[in-house]
Design goal:
The complex is a heterodimer of chains A (332) and B (283).
Chain A: H1 34-68, H2 79-82, H3 85-88, H4 94-101, H5 103-134, H6 141-153, H7 156-166, H8 173-180, H9 194-221, H10 226-234, H11 239-268, H12 271-276, H13 288-298, H14 302-331
Chain B: H1 3-39, H2 43-46, H3 61-67, H4 75-106, H5 112-121, H6 127-138, H7 148-171, H8 175-183, H9 188-217, H10 220-225, H11 232-237, H12 247-267, H13 269-282
Helix pairs in contact in B: 1-12, 3-12, 4-7, 4-9, 7-9, 7-13, 8-9
Classes of the chains: A mainly alpha (332), B mainly alpha (283).
Chain lengths: 332, 283
């Protein structure tokens, strides 16, 4: 959010009035007064603690992992050993190359792609309908809005446990529901079949993401001026036409950002899978994040785990960069 | 188009809205109702054929059982641990983030945009990426299995998110009031203390609540960094590996794990909604 600055000089910005209009935000005038200089120093002082902590415990570890990813797959879990010359002499691409030979990893890549695509499509479709409903005024809207927010608060691991009760083969409510609707006559072993288990994991993840996606789309919907709809109605456009020709074009940027954000979140998803299937059956729900965890912390192959984590980050990065390129192209 | 047809259409649209609202509501409530349902069942009722949808009487036995000191999964100590870790991490995060957020909201300085994108880029990194070295670092220091080993990582990766939320709150406080105080001879720090903090108070509370919820819900970090010290999420994950699993107990423990965050979310509904959209879209 940028504040408009054409209302004459303000105290925080003495030269504001002389500044060329339309310049990039954050660009400073060539000469700055003493007040401005004091403010700048203060700004850096305020940011410094947060920046220090984030750098020391976030960015530096990330770089350490980068080094680890080139070291022998199975290495001593002691941070000092990372910079041991004996280890540094053995730097190689082995861990990265090894991933191509790893059948579970290859399966995990495929699972992750399916998982992400289906979750993104389902959560955006469901949330679009929900947002359109919440954008109407009707009795009980406040209640529905509160209900929609609840999954955001539920701890993801509890979400997984909960869906485990829904999909339980003996006592699950999903089998109970489908039975009483007459859709099935034999209980389904939801978590015992790779495809069904992936579907179970997907629904659990979608359910948790609905508050986020609905609120993002709703915020987008509320920026569309009501007059456009009114004049389209006068011109005889029906509801479906209004949706495709007014609503969708107006929220497409929001949808793009949401899809990107979801991709980032869903590739990181871990808890629901852990609680529901722990990656099984026969690796049917093992996603990249889960296999990385197993390699690093179950099999203690830190080097290999680090390489897998970097591959995962790289693939997520591609989606994010693609988002920026599309955005730039559309917005010109 | 005649007026009666128009009215009919309008009525149809209203009906459709209600219909969809009910369907959406049912879908959203279904899993949680399942959890609550199981938490009130005895083992016998749970496995009854044909399936019982509701328990015959309301029984709180499962809720009492899981808090007992000799329960198979240490739920009560785990709740205490989660409270300690989440409160500490949320407080530290808000302190760190509020200063930085204020600077981003009010001052223009070289590197401002770069630093903001740096904060955003932190979201991209999978948690495993820095959990590997943090694990390798804490192990020789014998800091695994302590509250600190959770509080510090939580604080670090919540800070960027909370900075983005708070930056928006600070921007919504009119700048003119501060400027007037500055002219009257207040120092910048006393302006923050006497003017900004009271005005942004609700924002700070909401940020604290968001940070508390994120800490309470975290699972992967404590799974890796602790073994004997259990937080509620990890304790809950233990049920599946218990011999002869008691689903009623697991469901009751799950309700305990949801309750604090659910209550906070419903109290601070509007603020949390704002936080979700602000933290995700605007950055």
């Amino acid at each position: 959010m940028r504040r408009l600055r054409f209302s004459g000089p303000t105290w925080g910005d003495p030269e504001g009035a002389n500044r060329p209009k339309g310049g990039a935000a954050g660009r400073l005038p060539p000469s700055i007064g003493p007040l401005e200089r004091r403010k700048r120093r203060l700004a850096y002082t305020f940011i410094f603690p947060a920046l220090l902590v984030i750098t020391a415990l976030y960015l530096v570890p990330t770089l350490v992992t980068f080094v680890v990813s080139f070291e022998p797959a199975k290495m001593d879990p002691n941070i000092v050993k990372v910079f041991d010359p004996a280890n540094l002499r053995q730097l190689s691409l082995d861990n990265y190359l090894r991933s191509f030979q790893d059948p579970v990893w290859r399966k995990a890549v495929g699972n992750t792609i399916w998982y992400v695509i289906v979750v993104v499509v389902l959560s955006i479709s469901f949330s679009m309908v929900t947002a359109l409903v919440l954008n109407q005024s009707f009795k009980g809207r406040g209640f529905l809005r509160a209900l929609i927010l609840i999954p955001w608060a539920v701890p993801p691991i509890v979400n997984g446990t909960t869906w485990g009760l829904v999909y339980h083969a003996d006592i699950g409510t999903m089998n109970g529901l489908l039975r009483s609707l007459g859709i099935i006559h034999q209980d389904l072993l939801w978590l015992g079949h790779p495809r069904l288990a992936l579907l179970a994991v997907i629904t659990a993840t979608v359910w948790r993401l609905i508050p986020l996606v609905t609120l993002l789309i709703l915020a987008g919907l509320q920026t569309i001026p009501q007059e456009i709809y009114e004049s389209a109605k006068v011109d005889g456009a029906n509801a479906v036409q209004r949706f495709w020709h007014i609503t969708v074009p107006n929220v497409r940027m929001v949808l793009l950002t949401t899809a990107t954000l979801l991709t980032v979140f869903v590739t990181k998803a871990f808890d629901e899978i852990w609680a529901l299937t722990e990656g099984g059956p026969s690796y049917g729900t093992t996603v990249m994040n889960l296999w990385t965890y197993r390699q690093a912390f179950d099999f203690l192959r830190f080097g290999y785990g680090a390489a897998l984590a970097y591959i995962l980050m790289f693939l997520t990065g591609i989606v994010v960069v693609a988002n920026f390129i599309i955005r730039r192209r559309v917005e010109g | 188009m005649g007026p009666s047809l128009y009215r009919l259409q309008k009525k149809g649209a209203k009906l459709l809205t209600y219909l969809l609202a009910v369907v959406i509501g049912l879908v959203m409530a279904f899993p949680l109702l399942t959890l609550v349902r199981v938490s009130f069942f005895t083992r016998l009722e749970l496995y009854a054929k044909p399936m019982l949808w509701l328990p015959k009487t309301v029984k709180w036995q499962n809720y009492v059982d899981v808090l007992a000191p000799n329960h198979i999964v240490p739920i009560k100590p785990a709740i205490t641990n989660s409270l300690i870790v989440a409160c500490s991490a949320a407080t530290l995060t808000v302190i760190l983030a509020s200063l930085a957020a204020y600077a981003f909201a009010r001052f223009r300085f070289p590197g401002r945009n770069l630093l903001q994108s740096l904060l955003l880029s932190v979201y991209l990194l999978p948690a495993i990426l820095f959990l590997i070295p943090i694990f390798m670092m804490l192990r020789p220091l014998k800091l695994l299995d302590t509250h600190i080993s959770l509080i510090v990582p939580y604080t670090v990766w919540m800070t960027p998110f909370v900075i983005l939320i708070l930056r928006d709150f600070f921007q919504s406080v009119p700048e003119e009031i501060e400027d007037a105080a500055l002219v009257d001879g207040c120092t910048q720090l006393s302006v923050i203390w006497h003017i900004i903090l009271p005005l942004a108070g609700p924002g700070l509370v909401a940020a604290w609540v968001s940070a508390f919820i994120m800490s309470w819900n975290e699972f992967l970090t404590p799974l890796i960094l602790t073994s004997k010290l259990k937080v509620i999420t990890v304790a809950l994950g233990q049920y599946t590996s218990t011999y002869d699993i008691q689903l009623g107990h697991m469901a009751a423990a799950g309700v305990y794990a949801i309750l604090p965050v659910l209550i906070l979310t419903l109290i601070f509904q509007r603020r949390i909604e704002q936080g979700i959209t602000a933290g995700s879209l605007k950055g």
